[in-house]
Write a structure and sequence with these properties.
The protein is α/β, with parallel strands linked by helices and 352 residues long.
Length: 352
Amino acid sequence: MSADTLDILFVHIDPCIRAEKEAFALANRGHRVHLLCQGLNFQPNMRDICASVTHYADLAELGALIRKRDDFDVVHCHNEPNEPTVAALDNTDRPVVYDCHDFRGLRQTLAGAEAETERRCFEDTAAVVHVSRGMAEAAAGRYASDKVLVLPSYPMLTAAPAEHLPKLDGNHLVYLGGLRDRGSVHYEYRNYLPFFEKLTAAGVHVHAYPADFNPKNLGTYLALDRENEFFHLHPKLPYAELLREISRYQWGLSGFNFMDIKDPNTLLFLNNALPNKLFDYLLGGVCPVVVNCETSGRWAVEHGLGYHAADAEQMVDIVLHETPKPPLSDFGRVDMLEQVGKLEGLYRELLA
């Protein structure tokens, strides 16, 4: 590295929107991001953001690629899954940062090698990056990490629409993110069909933009789209276009469905999450309504930017009878381009 420029090696199975935003923001600050991944299905424009992109087939090849490279200062590993982080730990003496998108041990019971893998991710890495303060506090109750940084999945102002579109007549709510039919193992919280059915029965137009438009996971939503004039299932859009599109709607749905979840660890995980979509709604001029998810709901209410519903019934009541909060005017506090400076500072601290 030069005095000002860092070379950061991102490791990810298939980069998600959080990884893309971090990489773009770091590159925008003059750093070079090199990517090791198995695929680029979700965020293919990482090819244009990164200084280099190299594909690996399995963990053995990932380890070999890390061992033979000397063009990086720090390794930034994105889970889920956790195993690539351990591959990095075993194949470099440079600082390894663990970006914990998804705290597996809170959602699932881990044992044996999986439990040890998670422990190493938290305790053997140079630093851990969390998506929310609540998640950092939950992890601190289980693991002793050397350094911890909280960096929510903020949006980027470069993607913000120059102006918002006029609001549609009537009452419209939008949902962005993962959608699954009921019964999807480990993804029960993404079964939003009961929410959508209650909203549309109350005369609210619901617009859903699935993060992954895979028909095999969306059967019930495709049926609802065919049968219900108040439900609208939309195709995936480029991020900037998506933010402009959602500015037509009054409300944005965040939070999770707890209906089929009884495990206390999973509930702890979900209540401490701070989903990307919360900030995307704010950037698009949409008032968020958070269902369940205490950390996210508390954030929206404390900042005077949205509402927190304890259940689906209260969510419907809010959408029917409350007035959307005024749109966010100062975007600096939720801008990844600005907030990524904290991540850069962490890198420099580790390299000092």
